[in-house]
Each structure stands twice: as C-alpha cells, then as structure tokens.
User: Which sequence fits this backbone?
C-alpha cells in the first residue's frame, strides 16, 4: 500500500505533488510528505495524518523547487508518526526517498549501516543511508541509485531525489510504478490518477526498470543497465472520472457508474442473436484442453470468483474458488488441463500474485481478470481479460464486483463453448439478460428504496445476510460491504448453513437480509420462516415476479426480473445501496474505512 508520486518540469512542483497525493490517498492515508529540490538543498515536509494535515502545514508559495517527490502512507513498519512518514533522508540530508512495498532484508542492511543515524522505525530508511554510502564512495547519483537497488530484496517501488540535480530516479520490483509525459513535465506515480489532470500519456514500467527523468526527457534502463523502450499509451479516462463528480463519496459515484461500467464490460463481447461470446484479447486456443478451473482471489474479488464457480459447475466444468492467500502457501495439485484465473481489481494484490507464482512451472494455464491495464498480474499470467470498469477509488469495491461477475458470466460461456468442442449452449436468453443488465441496474438506481431500510435498521446489534447458490456469494459480499463501511458486525452465510449454528445468534435485533435470485428460492424461504419465528426482521432482496416472500418480509428490495445467472449482480446493487446509506447515516468515513487500503500489496 502507500502511494508515491514524483514530478520534474517547468514551474513549481509542490501543487502538482499535493494534488497527486490527494488522488492516491486511496492507497493509504495515515501520514504523508513531500520533498523538493531547491538551490539550498532538499526541503522535506511530512506529517502524521491525512493529506489535508500536510497541506495545512505547508505554505505552498514558500516551497520552492521544480523537482520533487511525494508519498501517502499505509503503515507496515512502525506506527503512523511524523518520523515514520516518508520521504526519508540520509544523515547529511543530501537525498530523499519515497517507497511503496516492503524491503525484506532491511534488518540485515540496517546492521551493516550501523554507523548511520536512523530516525524512523521504517524498512525504507535503509535506502537513503545506502545511497549515502555510495555517494561517499564517489559514485554519481544514478550509479549510487542502481547499486543501492541491487542490495534490496522484497517488493518495492521507489523514487529518489538528490541535492544538486533536478533528476528524479525511480524503480520498481513487484509494486506498481507508471511514467507520465506532459509537454512541460514528467511524472512518476503508483497509479495513473496521480497525474491524470496533467497528462493522459502513460508508460508502464517493468520490474527491474530504472527510470531517470529530468525536465528535458527521461531514460529507462533494465536491470543490466541496457536502454529499454516502454511505449507510451493514451489513457482514455476522463480526469473527472478520477474525481468525485458531484457525489459525496467515491463509493456512491462508483455505485452509480455501474450501468456505464457494465456496458463497457459487455461491449463487443456478446452476441445474443448468435449466442456467441468473443474476447478479442484471447487467442483462439486459449482454453484448449482445459477440464478444471481454479479461481484465486481475495475479498470482494473472491466473492466474484465464488459466484463464477456456480456458473461454471452449471456448465459442466469443475470449478473451485480459493482465497489466494491460502492457495499460495499450499497450492492444490494442478496440471496442464487446469486453468487458474486470478480475479483482482487492482492487479497488485500480493496474495493473488503469490498464488499465481506458486503454480508457475506446473504446466497449469493462467488468466488474469483485472481492471488495471498494465498491472503486475497481467505480466504474471499467460492471458489477460480486462473488466473495463474504469478507475475505482473508493476503498470498498462496488462497480468492480459487478463488472467482474458480468465478465465471468461471459468467460463461463466461452469456456463452456470451448470445452464442449465448439457446441454453442442455449445461451441467447442469458446474453439478452446481460445486454439488458445496464438498464436494469439503472432502474434500481433511479428509484432507490434502500434508504428506508437503512434508516430503520442502522442501529441494530448485528446483521446477517443469507442466500443459496449464486445468492450465497452475494450474501457474503453484502455482509463484507456492510461491515467495512458501517463498522457494525455483519456476517454472510449460505442459507443452508443457518440452522447448523448461526441461528443461535438470531434475535429481534438481528436484521436478516435474504437474497433471492430465482433458483432454490423455496428452500431459502423456509430459512426466512425460521428466522422470522425468532422475531428477526427480514429484508428480502428479490425479483419483481416473486410475491411469495412478501408475506414473510418486513421490507422488500426489488430487482428487475432477469436471468438467474445475472440476478445476483442486481441484488448486490441493492445491498451496496443499503450499506452506503447506513454508513452515511452513521457518519462513517465511507471512502477511507479505518485500517483498510484499496490496494493490498503485502501478504
Ligand atoms: C472490499 C475490497 C477488498 C478487495 C480485496 C482484493 O471492498 O475492496 O476486499 O476486494 O482486497 O483486491 P483486488 O480485487 O484488487 O485483488
């Protein structure tokens, strides 16, 4: 976690560094800092707390320098204090460094640097002291940087500035770093939104690349020092897409972006008339010889993966979802007939990268399903399918879940076609429902009914979410969203599991959200009757056509009538709205829930 940014060019750097940090705040927000290169030396300002605290502490007009680096932190080594905030400097204050990731061998390096005075608890601080060693040995900044990086093991993206030069040096290994190019400036950042207001030209750096950027240009060299070309691409994200666009929170904006995101996910991939699905990014034979699918993911992405196992099983393809943090430590047997799909919005989740790395060399085939173009997972997997949801800034994943599931529905169709020797399924109904999905989501958003549910129940002790089949992962996701942003206790269960234990906790103060998707509804209705008999309030999420549940529910959140496979996405939108409304009524910091960060780049 943590966001880093750097800028060289004409005009003062400070304003662009701070706006870059604001746009990266989703990566971490417990402390922040900047360093600029001035004729008098390196000027560092850093503070515990959110970016606003740093901004308040800075008189921007007095911060000189056209070259600088910045950092917003999510603590891994040492508590969020001023001293632990980045940038970190050497003993002489001649270099400043920002870092995202973990230096695994920092303890050994710190021992070797025992003559240096360390002022923080961080792993990062070994970097400026190593740079100091190499500068003292007579190396110039670039060689000192390269030799320092050679000493590091772990995952990192680093940017460094040196006294007396307006060049910024950067590198990455296992953590993201992108280069931006404008007419009068260059940028380095953990993610594109950091500089999207200034340029849409982006080059994705690879692990081991060392970039040196200065006002007149840049060079990129690989681990061996050879010059490499990382082509610039034009990003078609509107800078406003990376802002709140008039909504109170990114989360609400992203919930409302779902119709557009879903249109993008489906665009050009599904032909309801022919019953065919195509992914232009996949080779013809991408799934040749596959007979088993493993899906590895964490959090919300894991719930999307679980949803996909039901879709695939329904199509006769054995499929299992695994928490990637478990899979990587103890991978199950796989061979060249296994397809392992990494489901990850960010493409940078360390657990999921490690799961994929754990089966390299086994012959198993790998596919990344991600939102972030050029993210690390796309380089670790044989093939990539993008969910095309656009930037997701709110820490709580919303539109990415819908787009993941929609894309997984399409992938399931394609896998089914390929593994059945090219026999099309009777899938026109499903593909028509998928084509109608953006409008169906819009119908829910146009007439939101979740507010009265949130108003009635936001003071309860504990919340249960239940469902069967694809409604089970939707229940799990409903509970995850609710607990993440309201801080109230919420649990998701298979409705089948309820009377095997959790029912003991059900009281009149335990609202139960029951998800109906048009299959196994009768059994779920029995479970609803069981909790109702314990006086628990029932909130049913169900299709328009379903009236049976009305007799047993205190509230009904309707979803448009649709294909069973698609209904879970609609039900989840209703649950997203309930969680958002309840958290808003409780005045929670919705976009930045405590203890959480958007991108979890450590295991
Ligand atoms: C929950 C949430 C997290 C992520 C998880 C995986 O709202 O956002 O649970 O889903 O950290 O992240 P990705 O999808 O980036 O691998």
Assistant:
């Amino acid at each position: 976690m943590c966001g880093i940014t750097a800028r060289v060019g004409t005009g003062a750097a400070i304003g662009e560094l701070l706006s870059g940090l604001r746009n990266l705040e989703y990566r971490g927000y417990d402390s922040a800092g900047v360093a600029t290169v001035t004729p008098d030396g390196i000027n560092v300002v850093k503070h515990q707390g959110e970016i606003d605290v740093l901004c308040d502490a800075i008189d921007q007009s007095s911060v000189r320098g056209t070259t600088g680096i910045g950092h917003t932190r999510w603590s891994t080594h040492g508590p969020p204090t001023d001293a632990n905030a980045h940038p970190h400097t050497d003993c002489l204050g001649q270099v400043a460094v920002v870092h995202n990731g973990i230096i695994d061998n920092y303890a050994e390096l710190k021992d070797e640097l025992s003559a240096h005075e360390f002022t923080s608890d961080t792993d990062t601080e070994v970097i400026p002291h190593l740079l100091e060693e190499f500068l003292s040995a007579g190396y110039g900044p670039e060689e000192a940087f390269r030799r320092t990086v050679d000493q590091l093991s772990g995952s990192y993206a680093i940017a460094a500035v040196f006294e007396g030069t307006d060049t910024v040096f950067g590198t990455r290994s296992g953590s993201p770093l992108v280069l931006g190019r404008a007419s009068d400036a260059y940028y380095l950042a953990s993610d594109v939104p950091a500089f999207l207001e200034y340029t849409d030209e982006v080059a994705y750096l690879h692990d081991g690349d060392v970039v040196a950027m200065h006002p007149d240009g840049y060079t990129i060299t690989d681990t061996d020092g050879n010059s490499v070309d990382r082509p610039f691409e034009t990003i078609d994200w509107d800078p406003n897409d990376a802002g709140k666009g008039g909504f109170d929170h990114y989360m609400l904006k992203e919930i409302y972006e779902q119709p557009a995101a879903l249109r993008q996910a489906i665009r050009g991939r599904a032909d309801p008339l022919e019953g065919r699905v195509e992914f232009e990014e996949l080779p013809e034979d991408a799934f040749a010889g596959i007979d088993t699918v493993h899906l590895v993911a964490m959090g919300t992405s894991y719930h999307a993966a679980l949803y996909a196992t039901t879709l695939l099983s329904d199509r006769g393809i054995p499929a299992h979802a695994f928490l990637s943090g478990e899979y990587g430590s103890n991978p199950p047997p796989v061979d060249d007939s296994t397809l392992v799909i990494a489901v990850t919005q960010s493409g940078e989740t360390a657990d999921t990268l490690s799961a994929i790395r754990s089966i390299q060399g086994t012959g198993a085939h790998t596919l990344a399903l991600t939102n972030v173009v050029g993210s690390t997972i796309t380089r670790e997997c044989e093939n990539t399918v993008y969910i095309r949801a656009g930037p997701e800034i709110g820490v709580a994943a919303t539109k990415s879940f819908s787009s993941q599931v929609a894309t997984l529905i399409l992938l399931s169709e394609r896998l089914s076609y390929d593994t059945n020797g090219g026999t099309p399924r009777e899938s026109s109904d499903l593909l028509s429902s998928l084509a109608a999905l953006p409008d169906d989501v819009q119908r829910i958003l146009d007439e939101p009914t979740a507010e009265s549910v949130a108003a009635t129940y936001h003071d309860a002790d504990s919340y249960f979410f239940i469902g069967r089949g694809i409604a089970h992962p939707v229940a799990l996701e409903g509970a995850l969203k609710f607990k993440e942003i309201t801080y109230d206790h919420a649990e998701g269960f298979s409705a089948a599991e309820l009377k095997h234990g959790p029912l003991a906790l059900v009281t009149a103060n335990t609202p139960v959200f029951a998800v109906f998707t048009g299959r196994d509804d009768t059994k779920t209705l029995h479970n609803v009757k069981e909790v109702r008999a314990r006086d628990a309030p029932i909130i049913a999420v169900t299709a328009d056509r379903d009236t049976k549940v009305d007799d047993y529910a205190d509230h009904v959140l309707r979803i448009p009538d649709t294909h069973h496979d698609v209904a879970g996405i609609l039900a989840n939108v209703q649950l997203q709205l309930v969680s958002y409304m309840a958290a808003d009524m409780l005045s929670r910091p919705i976009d930045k829930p405590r203890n959480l960060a958007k991108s979890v780049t450590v295991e």
In short: Residues 564-585 form the longest helix (22 residues).
